[in-house]
Design brief:
The chain has 108 residues and is of the alpha+beta class. It has two helices and four strands, in the order αββαββ. Helix 1 packs antiparallel against helix 2.
Length: 108
Amino acid sequence: MYGHVEVCEMTKPPDDIIVWAVSALSGEITPNMRMVAFGYSGDCAVFRFYMEEEPSEEEVEVGEIVAVNFDSGLPKKLKKLDVDFVVTEEPLGKLDTLDFGLFRRRES
């Protein structure tokens, strides 16, 4: 889903879920991605991609691939899985990491 989404009530994800989310993201970072935040509750997850510019069609597809890769490795089906893209110039330290920041690029 493209655009801002409502996030389920999140709790700190278990370590194995964080590791799996990082694995799903592996190799999918583009130069336009500033940070990737992750939110999770037992039956709901969201990947939020903070972008420098509007995401291209390819980048939107990359976000969907990350979500599908994550979902495919879970032991139980999620009720809700969202992909959110936010274009912002805000400093990285002011952005919401949801439950966990999976990726943060170096900016000066």
